[in-house]
Amino acid sequence: MKPLIELINKRPVLSYRMTVHSDQGIQYQTNTWRQTLKKHHIFQSMSRRATCLDNASMESFFHTMKAELYYDHHYQTKQELIKAMKAWIVYYNQHRIRHKLKDKTPIKYRNLALGKVT
After folding, report:
1. Quick one: pLDDT at residue 62?
2. pLDDT, tens digit, for every residue of 67-86?
3. How many helices (H) and strands (E) are present in the chain, helices listed first?
4. What confidence score (pLDDT) does residue 51 get?
5. CA angle 51, 49, 3 (to 5 degrees)
6. What is the pLDDT of residues 83-96, one digit of tens each?
7. SS3 content of the chain, % helix, strand, coil (to 5)
8. HEC states along 83-103?
């Protein structure tokens, strides 16, 4: 629940309903998880059983993160890995230009879609 609560507290105020997509893990089916989403007007989306394409965008993200951050790197501690992951996510969202996003970073593309001038 801790990462979900952190997400809820950090997300910007949105004029549309947020969606959280997950697999069918038991943790995503608990009453606590589902009620927390409902309380914060968050739509729950789950992959269908044995259908990885339902979650293709996140699978792609995690593949990219593993390829660029994890493979061929050896971290001495869990904290060192977490620090590297956090730095990489900032890089990915704020600096890494994506052709599929009209040659924009994910943050700039989101702001463009929301009509925000940056």
Report:
1. 85
2. 999 888 899 999 999 999 99
3. 5, 2
4. 67
5. 95
6. 999 999 999 999 99
7. 60, 10, 30
8. HHHHHHHHHHHHCCCEHHHCC
- DSSP H or E run through 65: helix 56-65
Is the distance from CB of 105 to CB of 116 less than 8 angstroms?
no
Q: How far apart are CA 107 and CA 93, in angstroms?
A: 6
Residue 17 pLDDT grade (very low, low, confident, very high; cuts 50, 70, 90):
confident
Q: From 3, 1, 6, 8, select the one nearest 40 (Cα to Cα).
A: 8
Kindly report the number of other CB atoms within 10 A of residue 44's CB atom: 14
